[in-house]
Amino acid sequence: MDDDSRLAIHQVTFLPQWSFRESIEGLARHGVTCTAIWRDKLHEIGVGEGAMILADHGMKVTGLSVGGLATSPDPRAWQAAVDDTRRAIEEASRIGADHVVMLSGGLEAGSKDVSGARQRALEAVGRVVPDARASGVKLGLEPLHPMLCEKRAVLCTLKQANEWCELLDDDPAVGIVVDTYAVWWDPALEEEIAKAGPRICAFHVNDWLSDTRDLRLDRGMMGDGVIDIPWIRRAIERSGYWGPCEVEIFSERDWWRRDPDEVVRVIKERTRTHV
Amino acid sequence: MDDDSRLAIHQVTFLPQWSFRESIEGLARHGVTCTAIWRDKLHEIGVGEGAMILADHGMKVTGLSVGGLATSPDPRAWQAAVDDTRRAIEEASRIGADHVVMLSGGLEAGSKDVSGARQRALEAVGRVVPDARASGVKLGLEPLHPMLCEKRAVLCTLKQANEWCELLDDDPAVGIVVDTYAVWWDPALEEEIAKAGPRICAFHVNDWLSDTRDLRLDRGMMGDGVIDIPWIRRAIERSGYWGPCEVEIFSERDWWRRDPDEVVRVIKERTRTHV
Fold first, then answer.
1. A-chain residue closest to B115, CA distance
2. ipTM of this predicted complex?
């Protein structure tokens, strides 16, 4: 991708290296003007302080991660997740984020009821739609890779995300987050991206490593894996999305161990050559 | 499942512990009358000898694993995979197997062309359909879990397997292998099982472990994971399949390290309680 202005980098890419403030200062230093926020980091510094740091650096914010995770069959735990998502919406509004990244959540320990978990996760999204609408913050439904179905996301495919949007009457407050890592394998990818069209509110990029060692924390730098990222980007552009390309790399063995300034430099280079 | 006569156990479940002969003798000793065969093991002992051992023990054979793996963009490598699949069909015929388990294959090293790999894999299946028909052996298309898309199977979903069957004019020589591990997460599972109907030629059972450590070799014993196996079995029965329930566990850390007689005992028990 040759348009540097579309580059966004999620602060979770420097999870162990940089504090909230350091990540915003660091990105600004490298001329990156758009980021995504990890709630734990925001909470450490406080929402007011976080909002000020972002404003001081003229940093745009795509998503705030994460809301949702409301699959529990226990009504109190489910309600607590809904309440937490409402707080995420409010936080997103205060820091000027475009959307809350909504993970559906996985299976409760001991449960085998994927279908029930899906119903409850969808019900939770519907419950907070009015809050999102009132705050001018979108709910970005993000399907994760099916290998995370049990742990993090019973929402596994773009097709399912499209169906959820329809079930939510295509409320404009509900969008879809497309992550290359989550969807690259999907035989229905092109068709479902086309269907998603204007629902797409974010595009996350990173790569699938051939020697993947961990289901969640072993994502690769663009170009180090097997995903044809430009092909997915172009499909998304054909569907009408021309917003930020947001690099988000969970990498316990590699990128989380490197000098974060080096990581940003590599990301900028690889975005030009492999996104 | 309370019908012991439907139990089959794939000899790969004892890959490091039992030779070909030992696995057939072992299963027979425990009253198991149906198995599936791993080609490497068959080749070690020879097809003729293997067929005799099976016949001597009155052992029925579901699938012979594996054929296919024809995704290479190099025409010679692709042709070699087709030729090897023809040999698998002939071997399957000689040992009286119902089908060859057809894995599509993953991405060639360095390739990012999933779509091309899929075309070539499908083309290879079409190429050997006449051989299968002539030998009275089915080709069992087995989608694997999407996390194995890069390494082993660009055929990732039951929907895609159904589409391939249609593209192959629903030739009765082509069937579908449903493996609980590969499909449990799929939001379209029930619908696609119903569509598959009489195409289903095998049902593999094993479980998804909550602390999965390896993408390929860390499958769980039924009951140790999160898959609602009886729910999938009933869906498959509604679609008309009442054949063997075939236990197939690749387990580097656990079941491949245990006394195989103990493994068979546990399988028999868990089949009653968790299949």
1. A187
2. 0.96
